[in-house]
Amino acid sequence: NLSKMPLLEFVLEGFEGGPQTQALLFALFLALYVVAVLGNLTMIVVITVDARLHSPMYFFLKNLSFLDLCYSSVISPKALVNILSSSKVINFKGCATQFFFFSMMGTTEAFLLAVMAYDRFMAICSPLRYPISMCPLVCVRLMLTCYCGGCLHSLPQ
């Protein structure tokens, strides 16, 4: 009986076409991935190195770049491998792991965007209290809350 067989792997359907189409798609997706990685790494390095950018807004932007780097690195490498591979499968555990991290990064990013909006609200509406209310310790705690919230949201998925 087929219904009692365990699900071991998924077959990934991709773009149809010959080897030339596959090579073109691989080059296109690889270029997009490299641009995303280099752009996010550049943001992280510039914000880290330049002391003028050590404010809460840039702290959150640096973390957003890190999340975007992780977010794109969850799916893109496997997709690039599958474009060139003749065996387009992913096992169940690999799929579940990939979905967990994809969900975690996406949810964490959504929480971080809300924190960034709160940061701008505090800077605009309470400029005199802003340096105290958004001190480095508060920023780190808000960031950790974003990561914990993203992880907790993704666990039941």
TrEMBL record:
Residues 39-157 form the G-protein coupled receptors family 1 profile domain. One of its GO terms (molecular function) is G protein-coupled receptor activity. Its main location: membrane. InterPro entries: GPCR_Rhodpsn, GPCR_Rhodpsn_7TM, Olfactory_GPCR. The keyword Transmembrane applies. It holds the Pfam family 7tm_1. It is found in: Cell membrane. It is a multi-pass membrane protein. Keywords: Cell membrane, G-protein coupled receptor, Membrane, Olfaction, Receptor, Sensory transduction, Transducer, Transmembrane, Transmembrane helix. One of its GO terms (biological process) is sensory perception of smell. The chain crosses the membrane at residues 23-47, 99-118. It comes from the Eukaryota. GO terms for cellular component: plasma membrane. Belongs to the G-protein coupled receptor 1 family. This is G-protein coupled receptors family 1 profile domain-containing protein.
